[in-house]
Automatic annotation (TrEMBL):
One of its GO terms (molecular function) is DNA-binding transcription factor activity. It holds the Pfam family TetR_N. It comes from Candidatus Pullichristensenella stercorigallinarum. This is TetR/AcrR family transcriptional regulator. Keywords: DNA-binding. Residues 29-48 bind DNA. Transmembrane segments: none annotated. Gene3D superfamilies: Tetracycline Repressor, domain 2 (1.10.357.10).
Length: 205
């Protein structure tokens, strides 16, 4: 009795990754994915229901790690944060910007799949959903600064969402457009000048 081929899953996922990155979810064909993996469609359907489950498997770790990162920020008790730390959270430093770029780059394929290749999947609105989630968290930080009289008070959650969408787009677009790591370093320096939150929010510290 022959043993099951333990390499099938790995070959399928690697082939799917290549096809989704090259063609996007909508244009990638299951037959091509299977042919390149040297796997029958029957073997695929024993493991996955179709293209979307393959896509889910490829982005699952990236999504989980993003959620963990967001949860850390959301779990902070703002009443225990000093004025200086509260205001400092809005200061864009080169090291701070590069920290998030490094996070993205370490999961580059997963990020590119989510921000460039996900049309037709349940992640098609990934960026909007991510920005909405981040706005909910960052708005609490803004409200706390406003409560303490540390910044302007006329920016509401809706406007902050618009501003943060532009901000996070600046993080994700370099991955959409295949920036090299050197180009990302240069872009990060420009971002620090472009998104001057201290001036925009009129932070007093």
């Amino acid at each position: 009795m022959s043993l099951p081929d333990a390499t099938i899953d790995g070959r399928l996922l690697e082939s799917a990754r290549r096809h989704f990155l090259e063609k996007g979810f909508l244009n990638a064909q299951l037959k091509d994915i299977c042919d390149d993996a040297d796997v029958t469609t029957g073997a695929l359907y024993k493991r996955y229901r179709g293209k979307e489950e393959l896509f889910d498997a490829l982005v699952a770790d990236t999504l989980r790690e993003i959620e963990e990162s967001i949860s850390q920020r959301a779990g902070i008790d703002l009443h225990t944060v000093s004025d200086q730390a509260l205001a400092g959270a809005w200061v864009n430093t080169y090291d701070g910007v590069m920290e998030w770029f490094s996070f993205c780059n370490a999961r580059r394929d997963g990020f590119v799949l989510l921000v460039r290749c996900a049309a037709g999947t349940r992640y098609g609105n990934f960026l909007h959903d991510f920005c909405s989630h981040m706005t909910e968290i960052d708005y609490q930080w803004l409200v706390e600064m406003q409560r303490r009289g540390l910044c302007r008070t006329d920016i509401d959650a809706r406007e902050l969402h618009v501003l943060l969408t532009a901000y996070w787009e600046a993080y994700y677009e370099p991955f959409v457009h295949d920036f090299t790591w050197e180009e990302i370093h240069r872009h990060a320096k420009i971002m620090c000048k472009l998104f001057n939150w201290k001036e925009a929010l009129e932070i007093k510290l």
